[in-house]
Amino acid sequence: MAEETWNRVEGPVRAGSIVQAGSVGELHVHQAAVPVAAVPCQLPPALAHFEDRADERARVLAAVAEGPGDGGGPLVVALSGMGGIGKTALGFELARALLDHCPDGALHVDLDDLRRDGAVETADALGDLLRSLDPQTRPEQELRGRARQYWTATQGRRLVVVVDNARSGAELRPLLPASAASVVIVAGPGQLYDLDGVRLLDLPLGPLGPEDAANLLRRIVADPRLAADPEAAAELARRCAGLPAALYVAGRWIRRHRRRELRRLVEDLTTELDREGLPVVEAVWDAAYASLGPVAARLYRLLPHHPAPVVDDHAAAALLGTDLDVAADALDELDSAGLLERRPDGLGMHALLRGHALRRARAASASASDAVDARRRLVRWYRRQAGRADLVAAGPRLTVSAPAAEAPAPAEVPDLPFPDAATALHWLEAERLALYGCVRLAAEDGLDEEAVALCEALWTHFLDHRHYADAIEAFGRGVAAAVRAERLAATVRMRCQLARPLWEQHRYEQAADELRLAVNGARLLGDSPEERKLRASAVEFRGKLASVRGDWAAAVPDFEAAREEHRAIGNAYGVMLQTYLLGRAAVAMGELPRAVELLTEAHAEATALGRERMAARTGFELGSALRAAGRREQAAILYRAALTAARERRSPGDELRVLDALSALSEETGDAEAAAVYRAAATTLRGPDGSTATPLT
Asked: Within this chain, do residues 639 and 672 fall inside the same structural domain, yes or no?
């Protein structure tokens, strides 16, 4: 009997894949070739219009070029920012740029498509990714099994994976490939604070700059009206606030209304955006808002009333009427939801999101009194801090408002520390938009006392930082508030403050009108020391305007009259200030010996009073008088002291004039090297048009 051979096959068998026979002479097997899975590429076609983000692209390519290093996982590029900022578009652009580096494929998964009641169905996400890698794959039933399959399928492969709408690191981690040579690009509203143990490149995205926004608009729609009216085109781009989604809406409006004037389109689009928002991202913003807790949602509805681009814990607490911890938690929640944008100086609300927040307030039927109360708390908190900062920076001086220590403020929000003048002045400059904005809020809400007090607190800051448009608007509101409140002393004070920026902008007649009314009003004041001091101040301002216009003959009697009034009431500071002004007048009139005498007296008195700002200014003017008199060494000492003081106060206007004076003095003494150093320092402070700030007065 012939020897037999037994064969056994175990396990599942596909039809047509096994042949068994006792004796085979010749065999031909005809079987279809097993299909080879194509390299997946799930990236949409490239955008025809894409602008900017060159820095982000360069950083990603540099990180990829560095290689995995010691880390075992893939590089994770985290693009964060609010809806409509262009995160997904940039993610796809980056993925396309990495296709050569990642030849094994490009995958994409949108977690919002798989989100149920706020939670992502991670098993479904893994199933989609596995089938994308190999259509023949049969994903296991459980999440753990699918995760093992995914790790096996991605091991050693060079993939780029785009994950859209990830809200946390916990959602993203199961989707990370096992290969260190892969790159994961994740787009989400907030930063991935809970994603540890990976190579993470965090790239928060802000709005496009004005030039890039205008360029993108021109790319989106080639319309001759944009070139014919560049100002209207720039305004249209500005109204879109650097948001790509808004620029695409603007482009559609331009194409739709081809016969409409561009300036009218700007007005119509602005109205439409305010009323309806952006159809492309309104649902995204609504979903982000719906995810907020009650405190964060309330803060979101109140933030449009904050008049500055950046909000901190103190301002948020004032709006809410809560303590700092509650406010900080609410800000963190808004940041994580992508409803705030990260700026170099803090967190802020995008211009178009302000409109969304106001629409949410209307939809929520939020109490109008809640917004009114929030604005009042905010104004009063800023008024109190500004008054305290000004007191530290300038010392006690003439004011018509209640002292800062007596100003009301939200009990829950603590005062800020102002340990020295430099800190106080720096805060006033850093918060100037909020402070000037609070003058507007106070005037609009009938808080006349707060409007006047804020204007007074901003006076010393204005002398160091000439923000003319802000100052003229704010001080004008201060005049109106004082008149409305029928407060004569406040009206005199506000008119004097308004006159200064007006004449420095060469609006002499307007300044003269304000000072005429101020001096006439001051004559109606009583004879208390404070009222007499204010009367002397109004006369002093009239003299300053005359000096600016070159009429020293008219200025000197006003300065002398003001000095006598201050001397009569024992106001040493007022006497020093008028002596300083008389010394400057003597310099202008060529009376150098008298000028040196007066300015020496003023400088000594300012120093004795501990008034650092005036000590520096009197020292500078005395130095100029000594220099004109040929006493250059003494002048140099005073100039250098004035330069140090200007830098400590962070007053660029004062610093620039001292640098110019030092440069000229160095040239006069033959020290060319020192002159070059001073000129170079001045160049960095001078405006692009070569202009300088106003003269010291």
From this structure: yes
How many domains would you assign to the chain?
4
Same domain, 222 and 337: no
Residues in the chain: 697
pLDDT in tens, 491-521: 999 999 999 999 999 999 999 999 999 999 9
Same domain, 245 and 340: no
In this predicted structure, what is the pLDDT of residue 16? 45
**pLDDT mean across residues, the chain:** 85
d(CA 579, CA 462): 22
- DSSP for 136-149 reads T----SSHHHHHHH
How many Cα neighbours within 13 Å face the side chain of 565?
Answer: 24
Asked if 567 contacts 578 with a C-beta cutoff of 8 angstroms, the reply is no
Per the CB < 8 A criterion, the answer to whether 535 and 561 are in contact is no
Per DSSP bridges, beta strands 119-120 and 199-204 are unpaired
Tens-digit pLDDT profile for residues 403-412: 877 877 788 8
**Other CB atoms within 10 A of residue 587 CB:** 21
Query: Do 185 and 85 lie in a common domain?
Result: yes
Name the nearest CA neighbour of 490 among 540, 516, 437, 451: 451
- Are 583 and 595 spatial neighbours (Cβ–Cβ below 8 Å)? yes
Pick the closest to residue 542 from 528, 561, 527, 526 (CA basis).
561
Where is the domain boundary, 153, 180, 204? Answer: 204
Average pLDDT value for residue range 95-103: 91
Q: Which pTM was predicted?
A: 0.70
Backbone angles phi and psi of 160, in degrees to 5: -120, 125
Q: Residue 31 pLDDT more than 90?
A: no
CA 647 to chain centre: 24
Which residues make Cβ contacts (< 8 Å) with residue 541, sequence separation at least 6? 496, 499, 500, 515, 518
Q: Are residues 61 and 183 in the same domain?
A: yes
pLDDT higher than threshold 70 for residue 691:
no
Q: Is 79 helix (H, G, I), strand (E, B) or coil?
A: strand
Residues 431, 312 contacting (CB under 8 angstroms): no
Three-class DSSP category at 1:
coil
| 505 inside domain | no
Strands (E), 273-393: 341-343, 346-348
3-state secondary structure (DSSP) of residue 529: helix
Q: Kindly report the CATH number assigned to the domain that includes residue 317.
A: 1.10.10.10
Helix, strand, or coil here: 192?
coil
Sorted by sequence, the CB contacts under 8 Å of residue 136 that are 6+ apart come out as: 35, 37
Greatest Cα pair distance, the chain, in angstroms, is 143
Q: How far apart are CA 412 and CA 194, in angstroms?
A: 31
Confidence at residue 6, expressed as pLDDT on a 0 to 100 scale: 44
What type of residue is 164?
D
* Burial grade of 398 (CB within 10 A; 0-12, 13-18, 19 or more): middle
Per-residue tokens: 363: 């939809």
Give the pairing type, strands 119-120 and 160-164.
unpaired
Joined together, the tokens standing for residue 206 give 């802000």
Q: Which of 299, 291, 353, 364 shows the shortest CA–CA distance to 83? A: 353
Q: Tokens for 386, please give them.
A: 């500004």
Which segments of 216-372 are extended strands (E)? 341-343, 346-348
- pLDDT, mean of residues 260-281: 72
Cα–Cα distance, 490 to 358 (Å, whole number): 35
Nearest CA to 77 out of 93, 69, 85 is that of 93
What are the residues whose beta carbons fall under 8 Å from the beta carbon of 525, sequence distance 6 or more? 488, 489, 492, 531, 532, 534, 535
Q: CA neighbours within 13 Å on the CB side: how many for 334? A: 30
- 250 plus 323 within the same structural domain: no
Instruction: Among 317, 335, 366, identify where a domain stops.
Output: 366
